[in-house]
Amino acid sequence: MKVITLFLALLMAQIVSAQTKTSLYDIPLKNIDGKDTSLKEYKGKVLLIVNVASKCGFTPQYEGLEALQKKYEKQGFTVLGFPCNDFLSQEPGTPAEIKQFCSSKYNVTFPLFAKDHVNGKEAQPLYAVLTGSDSPFPGRITWNFNKFLISRDGKIINRFGSRTKPESPEVTKAIEEALKEK
Questions:
Q1: What is the rounded distance in angstroms from the CA atom of residue 171 to the CA atom of residue 136?
Q2: What structural domains does the chain harbor?
Q3: Which of 33, 34, 49, 68 has the smallest C-beta neighbourhood within 10 Å, fewest atoms?
Q4: Which pairs count as long-range contacts for 130-138, CB under 8 Å and 24+ apart, including other chains?
Q5: How confident is the model at residue 1 (pLDDT cuts 50, 70, 90)?
Q6: 3-state DSSP call for residue 173?
Q7: How much is the pLDDT for 175?
Q8: Residue 101 vs residues 94, 95, 147: alpha-carbon distances, Å
Q9: How many CB atoms lie within 10 A of CB 53?
Q10: Alpha-carbon distances, residue 134 vs 22, 66, 67, 130, 137 (angstroms)
């Protein structure tokens, strides 16, 4: 029994290690419509990955996120929204309801992905990499609207908490610096 437990522990360590070395672009995802996708189509762009929710005190940040999308999209930037219901069930809607809310209330044009978990054993593999021990900004997601800035070459270059508004000087400065890098 001890040998089996040790074997399983080693196997899990190898899986986690391999997972953290995976390119962000290769991680399988589903879009908000449930279709298989990945971040490959965003290769070469600066990305702001955000766990979003429609019934949160930070939900008005959708407005700032959309403003960033509009301001920087022609320079090779995009916001990517990942609905999450992990925090006090603040994203209870179906994919169709989430899409409808985002488009009608905040005129969201940036891509949305399938609702998923961002912490724990059930965390979406993308979030396992973003927050894992090999990340330059490791640690659990503490609430909705955590933001990860990704460089054009797929590296995690900054992390902003929920209280940091998308239009804050520290976020816009980091985006502008990342956009200058070729």
A1: 17
A2: 2-180 (3.40.30.10)
A3: 34
A4: 130/49, 130/156, 132/16, 132/19, 132/20, 133/20, 134/20, 134/21, 135/20
A5: low
A6: helix
A7: 98
A8: 10, 10, 20
A9: 28
A10: 11, 30, 31, 9, 8
Task: Specify the pTM.
Answer: 0.87
Three-state SS at 123: strand
Task: Say if residues 125 and 136 touch (Cβ distance below 8 Å).
Answer: no
Interacting residues of 1 by C-beta distance below 8 A, sequence separation 6+? none
Q: Is 56 a catalytic residue?
A: yes
56, 102, 112, 126: which is the annotated catalytic residue? 56
Give 121: exposed, middle or buried? Use CB within 10 Å, 0-12, 13-18, 19+: exposed
CA distance 61 to 73: 18
CA distance 25 to 151: 12
